[in-house]
Design brief:
The chain has twelve helices and 15 strands. It is of the alpha/beta class and 372 residues long. Strand 2, helix 4 and strand 3 form a beta-alpha-beta unit. Helix 3 crosses helix 7 and helix 9 packs parallel to helix 12. The two termini are 26 Å apart. 49% of the residues are buried.
Length: 372
Amino acid sequence: MSKSKIWLSSPHIGKNELSYVKEAFESNWIAPIGPHLNQFEQKLSKISSGHHVAALSSGTSAIHLALIILGVKRDDEVICSSFTFSASANPIVYQGAKPIFVDSEPDTWNMCPDSLREAINNRMLAGKKPKAIILVHLYGMPAKMDEILHIANEFDIPIIEDAAEALGSFYKNKPLGTFGEFGVYSFNGNKIITTSGGGALISNNEEYIMRAKFLSTQARDDAPHYEHSQIGYNYRLSNVCAAIGLGQLEVLNNRVQQRRANYEKYKLSLSTINGISFLEEPISLFSNRWITAVLFADFQMRERIRIALSDENIESRPLWKPMHLQKVFTESKMFGGKVCESLFERGLCLPSGSNLSSDNLDRIINVVIDNV
């Protein structure tokens, strides 16, 4: 008899999501825009320091709209973290622009300020001032915002803060996603809360968000007929999906606590084993611990554990393969590279869902211990 599957990060539905969805159906608000979408944006604004919010179909679409609004065009250059999911970088190419990748630093695994400065100086000398910086808060861990903001302000380059994995995380008691010109959230099925599929673009600039909403609804001009003076996109979150999000936002704090508890259990059980280490939380940083990631002594040890977990029907995943190593980005410039390459070779994401039972958590830990 096969053992039950343990997923890396499965959706975790609370008590009220179905009632909100039922409201949407009973009131016939199945159309894309409706009262639940408005409420979802308002509640998301409250937990994002009052920033204006456009709820969208994905985090990817949010990054794309941010680039459009910032005026990124063909042959422009945009700096991006290399150590991330491809959704952070792909929208740069949508615009015909060129990604310039930057290495990680070992304290948070996020964008290295030194490599960022090196990249900007290099491109400025080449006469190509970057149009934006896409900064990623990886696995819910805040980046070194003070240093990165200082550099961005020095060169007057706007930051798009990819907090897709970091809703509920804080830097010096301020929510992630609220530091840059734009913040981006994701509500994909594996995120800390979900709307089935969805995302959001946030900004302190109300005009930017009004433009995002306009562009995300096919850029329809104000006319009694369908009039379009510019290209638009079908990027708006539906009212039904927003209804799910209303229930999910109610349990966000609980989901953060549950994922942080997973991390603490893993660390307590495994950190004393030779060859295993964890990403610590620097002072003044608060991570939602969306995913617990482990570093092993070398690639061989990581693969031995990954395969052992798979044999026990337990999903795990290597850390992100850096973008500069991906075939689609082989032509792109890269500054640094050794830190994120090492993290990819040695790192493994362990199951971290907020609905992970204590028995299953023990099962995962025992497999790791038995195969080190």
